[in-house]
Write a structure and sequence with these properties.
Length: 246
């Protein structure tokens, strides 16, 4: 199967009640004084096989929302999205982890969540141990792990599902230098095999090595799409201009 991502007019709306608690749109219609906020609106994106794309933008720009749409976590309130290929996503360092369980036990849990059968998840444990480089810590509760160790466990486990579309939300930025080398190599292998890598983050040096294209999101909208260096330059220039005007 050829990997691809296509979004047309993609929009995701969040509804909050008077206490700023999120509610469903249906519940929002029944309650008074609800507030609507668009996390993403009118986004058109097409990503083809072999592409690596960085998502740039400040906090609240819509990067995470777009990744969750691609991962199938969020359903659209308007527009359409189609993702072809087996998706592997790591959208939070602590996503899916049970702190009281060991790294080994969490690897089984994450493997099943990633689409592996239980026998496959158990069979992958030795590979996850080697890939994550956790050593004896693999048998300790995840509550004792650093953020980087949690990121390594999650990343190593996700790879066992052999994703054709890899989606990452800043998780890679918690990795140490040695593991980042592996991370970049694996990302290149996915792209070389016709897969897709989409990464959101703020480490521009790492993103420049990993990706050739960037999308700049601001206020839930896509405002630029093109070569990484060009889009990054525009993003930084806008940031400096806005900071100078305040």
């Amino acid at each position: 199967m050829t990997a691809s991502i296509r979004a047309r007019g993609a929009g995701v709306r969040f509804v909050f009640d008077r206490q700023r608690r999120p509610v469903t749109p249906a519940m929002g219609r029944l309650r008074r004084h609800c507030e609507t906020n668009w996390g993403l609106r009118g986004v058109d994106v097409e990503v083809g096989p072999g592409e690596s794309v960085a998502l740039l933008g400040g906090n609240g720009a819509g990067k995470t929302t777009l990744l969750k749409v691609m991962a199938g976590v969020y359903t659209l309130d308007e527009g359409a999205v189609a993702v072809e290929g087996r998706v592997g996503s790591l959208l939070s360092i602590n996503g899916g982890l049970m702190p009281e369980l060991t790294g080994r036990e969490n690897a089984v849990l994450l493997g099943v969540l990633a689409g592996l059968s239980r026998p496959q998840a158990f069979a992958s444990l030795e590979s996850v141990l080697q890939s994550s480089r956790l050593g004896n810590a693999f048998e300790r509760p995840v509550s004792s792990y650093s953020q980087g160790m949690r990121a390594r466990l999650g990343f190593a486990t996700i790879l066992e599902s052999r994703p054709q579309v890899l989606l990452l939300d800043e998780v890679h930025e918690a990795l140490d230098d040695d593991f980042r080398v592996d991370f970049e190599r694996i990302s290149e292998e996915i792209r070389s095999a016709g897969g897709i890598v989409v990464v959101a983050g703020h480490d521009h040096q790492l993103l420049s090595r990993m990706t050739s294209r960037a999308l700049h999101l601001k206020d839930a909208s896509l405002i630029d799409d093109g070569p990484f260096d060009t889009v990054l330059g525009g993003y930084l220039a806008r940031d400096r201009g806005e900071a100078a005007s305040r």
